């Protein structure tokens, strides 16, 4: 029996494609350089001197006795009025501009690898739609897991930067406070009954303990009893608090870009509606796991004039998966609009500075503009990484949880799997085994032994276990995705209007 089969072929093909195509095509570069994004250019020193009326210093290396520095040092820095009327020029972002941006390599790797992982997953799902999974290891789950790991690692590294800098005391405190708040919310969520929040953690716990007990008994290991449920739930809540902490500033950044995008599209009503739908979609996804307002309403309640509910249970599960994919695709399509809203911060800074009194140095003014473009990849990572985590968690939730993209095929798949299991049961014979001399195990025998151990391990990690763990993980990432951005939107709306 093939352990990998077509999965290994698909994986090897795409590993080769990554090596061949990555130097020539990059989705990450295309998003930044081919979607019409414009960056703002700061004025040169000569332009600032001309606007501010600062005379150009004479060349020379003599030392100014009154000020204690040379003429070249003095000419490199000068003061201009803050209220100076400066009009910034714009230019399209090119491939050469983004090569030296901070976190560009990490951003490019995450986006491009996610694209290949999504293609591998789609091909794998298409293959197994026509050829149901029997004993093959689904390697597309490994691709999805790697994307989730890379996205989490990058968000964690961006959050750690706030703890390394001495100037980020406010950001550091915000991460700690929000982490503890999310920990408290997660502790409440994990103990909610299934009739309210249907994530399946209780069922997953019972099935895991049952399967683990049988597995240990078959291996001859004494079982001291089920693991403490309170300890496991507390560990899950701690992980949820960490995820909430690293999602805090991506959510705040998303809210800022959404607020600015609405400001720049006041005359485009349709785009404004689409942006608001995009912002509200995570909240609708969160409600799909709240049983009284989603499953009970759509699959149990019978409205007047109808003979049956609006949806079947299988149809509801498929609809929930499609809703997540739609929300992710919508947010990815609107990414250039949000990134342009971020780049427009350079223009907003100059306009706000015109209302201030006093003077500013030319280098400080130029740094204020160039820093916006310098952190473009950081902002893009904060925008894209939470989206990718939600998307690939939903992929794993669908596949490992045994769900289907089409509600009509669930029964057919179940019947085919049951028929396959009947074929796998060995037929009993009355033949007496022949006595043979002991021989060393061959490669085939070792592979069959490993396959048997893997099959026994599947009895521990059943579909119910995956549905509980991955279902809660998917719901939680969507929840903190929305909660963090909502907190940032409240801050932008309230405090911006106050100022």
Automatic annotation (TrEMBL):
Membrane topology category: Multi-pass membrane protein
Signal peptide: 1-28
A Pfam family the protein falls into: Tmemb_161AB
InterPro entries linked: Transmembrane_161A/B
Localization (cell): Membrane
Keywords: Glycoprotein, Membrane, Signal, Transmembrane, Transmembrane helix
UniProt entry tagged with the keyword Cell membrane: no
Bilayer-spanning residue ranges: 140-163, 175-192, 230-249, 270-290, 319-339, 372-397, 469-491
Gene Ontology CC: membrane
Predominant place of localization: membrane
Top-level taxon in the UniProt lineage: Eukaryota
Statement: the UniProt record of this protein carries the keyword Cell division: no
Assigned protein family: Belongs to the TMEM161 family.
The protein, known as: CLUMA_CG011941, isoform A
Species per Swiss-Prot/TrEMBL record: Clunio marinus
Source lineage: Eukaryota, Metazoa, Ecdysozoa, Arthropoda, Hexapoda
